[in-house]
Design a protein that fits this description.
single chain, about 180 residues, mainly alpha, two-stranded parallel sheet, two-stranded antiparallel ribbon, 9 helices
Length: about 180
């Protein structure tokens, strides 16, 4: 049975490849001839069947820069005509219930990330997780959890920003020895 790539090529549809930079290069290389000028793929398991893309087919891919192991290679990047950088919508975060001081801390951390002063900053996904934890376990646990999900090498930066903006000392959520 042909998968989503062949189906999209034959039906002239869009194929979404999420976290493209985390796909092993050997697997990702299958997409290259479909994405460059050839618009074809060859399927060895089907007697070297060649599939030609019809009009309307294209590939959209997402990736998260800065994620450990996620590298947008030149070979992959060159196959995309449009490159779009998507940032967190801070107004949306506030509308969805993220407290203003937490959003302010996230904004500062993202500015530090862009300046190379830290290696991680919360995005909308983490802020929405914060709201869920706050609603279930309370503000202290949510702040501690947000600090705790930061990578170890950014944790001090995150706890400092959260503490500065909330006026509350923050310690990353952790369990004791027992």
């Amino acid at each position: 049975v042909h998968g989503p790539l062949v189906t999209a090529m034959r039906q002239g549809r869009v194929l979404l490849v999420d976290d493209a930079t985390l796909i092993p290069p050997r697997v990702l290389a299958v997409l290259y001839p479909a994405m460059d000028g050839r618009g074809t793929v060859t399927i060895p398991a089907h007697g070297n069947e060649t599939v030609q893309a019809v009009d309307g087919f294209y590939i959209v891919a997402g990736h998260n820069p800065g994620v450990h192991g996620a590298v947008l290679t030149e070979a992959l990047a060159s196959r995309f005509t449009v490159h779009l950088h998507v940032t967190t919508d801070w107004d949306l975060a506030r509308q969805l219930g993220v407290p203003k001081p937490v959003v302010a801390a996230a904004i500062d951390l993202n500015a530090d990330l862009a300046a190379g002063k830290t290696v991680w900053a919360p995005q909308l996904r983490e802020l929405l997780g914060f709201v869920t934890v706050r609603d279930q376990l309370g503000m202290s646990a949510a702040l501690a959890n947000l600090a705790g999900i930061a990578p170890q090498d950014a944790r001090d930066d995150v706890t400092a920003a959260l503490s500065r903006h909330t006026g509350t000392p923050i310690t990353a959520l952790a369990l004791g020895k027992r």
